[in-house]
């Protein structure tokens, strides 16, 4: 039996080995390139250009069902091929085919042929009972494809498409049209890799921000450290701002669309096949994802043909590894509702790369937002439970994160509100785009409800927060003007500055005014003088700190400006998609004005948030919108030039992302320093001085004292003088010398001291009584009996090993302070006087973390102090 089994197994093993060897064998052919070079080529090599996904360029009206449409261009043998699989319900029809290839807006190759002349027998003539299987190879020359730049075969995201049109010979009517986008295998869109890296960066920012908000005891002090951590909202705004650059209704180069797909996850545009299919039916998107065409999902049952067999004919065949002529670079039928491959116009083109229909964008974004909120609540609960478990296991101290553990429900609610506040821009943009794009009635109704909930909810929170603070004050909007004056930047470059006329009049040397425009001025007057500053009001910070905690003390109301800015920006991007010129030009003007206002307000307390949110992100938005003007449909810009401009936009936005990464890393390091603020020892020790300077910096920024231009110049001069000063030479200073009295000194000076005391008693009669009392207290009879040593030789202490009480007091008074406390004790390093009016606030910020310890030390010192004898 064993031998029989082995004998039967040998043929199967031989067959498997022969199939494996056949799969590994490669076929070769000879080909001549455009330059005239002949070489041996592998049949299964990858072409220079090949097609990806394909769609129906008649809008679903083609009388064919196509499951496979591939085309390729080989530069090494100057050939173009195409492969077509499908079916049709047309019977006995003679056809003419037109095959064309376009690259960078120009038609590079075109050929008309009849199927019978190139041996495509399945279409000669077309029979409804015969499935379509078309394969053809054409030779091309330099005159046809020589205009394509050689650089186009290597640069990312080749822009072009291949089109196959089918005409009836009898009537000349176009029966079908299919188009597939061309690729060269190089792209900037790496969703799996880039999206994962960017998500990790955002997760680090979220973790660092949460750590500073959850660690500590005093709420105002926690707010100070939280304000200087990198803002997760700003990080998401950066990613969303880059992605929504693709929502403008212009003809983008393909490189931009691929680049923006890396940031789609930040706006909730994450593709899930099951989710898209479920949303399609609700959003009114119809179509078959397994084929393209308008001949019906199933071929008509003609001439007694089996329907099941017909369905098999319309299915694409899988890749056969044993066939050397098969390939893996083929595309798939385009997702229903997405844009036709090879075109990049507006927001639908940006979403087509993600295989998300434009009609589903709002619904998918809303679903992922709800998923994020659920994960957030679950994560906070698990984090709290893990802390409690570690405490019970005695892995951490009982008072570790005690404030968070006792207020974790409030933290969860505030985290949800903060997430909704961050998602305000995304929801507003997608909802307004849904109104402009259209869609089913149900989707538009949900978009309207969510739009109103966010608008009234976030707007109501901001108004309520301002009203609570200004309950005893006044908030007024007054008319003002903005003046554009001549100025200089970098001291030599002419520049136009934006100031208010009132400030211009107060200047000693006012600049020449170019023009003025009407504007408004917000004025806040707090009538209650006993009211705590907004950052020191613990109750107010607990309730509304999630809105204003990162802003300066004099700009705490900026959280009301942010939703208004995002709403207007969403109105341009999403609501004005039907009017491209008004959309682009209006958004450009709005971004310029917003940058002027925000830079003037300078709202953030942390410098990293200011650099990212105000300067880098603002300039990037202006540059992107300004360069996008060239893509307007009326410009008719050459597509090669448009691709060059697209690479400039990619470079600008990539520099923004590259600059974001070190800011997030520095924010994580500063958050780590904040978490160790109650520890004397810091690791690594090399950064101890940096930690001290960081704590001094955040204390200075918390005061919100804005230095004038003259003070900044003086501070700069002092720093230059200090840096140019010669290095200090080795030296030492004698602060005090304590000399122990000798026996002979006391013997010689006894008479002198007694004479001087007698002199003083003659002048001051009261001194005599005190001296007599002193002598009586320190006499030998009142203390203890001595041996036969002279009076001056009496011991100064009871034993030579014990210390004198005076010495003990001296040691306790001269005990050095810790390096952190000593460094934080002064503000001279930042140009502020030691007697600043805000010293009380600074001292509060230093001491509030461990009040119980400080009080206990003070009580212990009082308890060890000896009472004086009288």
Number of domains: 4
Distance between the termini: 118 Å
Helix residue percentage: 40-55%
Query: Percent of residues in beta strands?
Result: 5-15%
Please describe the biggest sheet, giving its number of strands, its sense, and whether it closes into a barrel: 8 strands, antiparallel
General description of the model:
This protein is α+β, with helices and mostly antiparallel strands. Helix content is 48%, strand content 14%. The strands form three sheets. It has an eight-stranded antiparallel beta sheet with strand order 7-6-9-10-3-4-5-8, with no helix packed on it. A three-stranded antiparallel beta sheet has the order 12-11-13. A hairpin with a 5-residue loop joins strand 9 (160-168) and strand 10. The longest helix is centred in the C-terminal third of the chain and has 37 residues, at 639-675. The protein is elongated and about 130 Å long.
Feature tags:
elongated, Immunoglobulin-like, 29 helices, alpha+beta, 870 residues, 13 strands, single chain, transmembrane, 48% helix
How would you concisely characterize the structure shown here?
This is ML-like domain-containing protein. Helix content is 48%, strand content 14%. The chain is an alpha+beta fold and 870 residues long.
What are the SSEs and their pairings?
Layout lengths: L1 H23 L3 E5 L5 E5 L6 E8 L7 E11 L4 E10 L6 E9 L2 E8 L18 E8 L2 H4 L14 E9 L5 E10 L7 H24 L4 H9 L4 H12 L10 H7 L12 H11 L23 H7 L32 H8 L7 H32 L9 H5 L1 H15 L1 H14 L3 H29 L3 E17 L3 E7 L1 H6 L6 E14 L11 H11 L12 H15 L4 H22 L5 H22 L10 H37 L12 H16 L5 H16 L18 H21 L1 H13 L2 H4 L21 H9 L5 H6 L14 H9 L3 H14 L6
Antiparallel strand pairs: 1-2, 3-4, 3-10, 4-5, 5-8, 6-7, 6-9, 9-10, 11-12, 11-13
Helix pairs in contact: 3-4, 3-20, 5-19, 5-20, 6-20, 10-12, 10-13, 13-14, 13-17, 17-18, 18-19, 19-20, 23-24
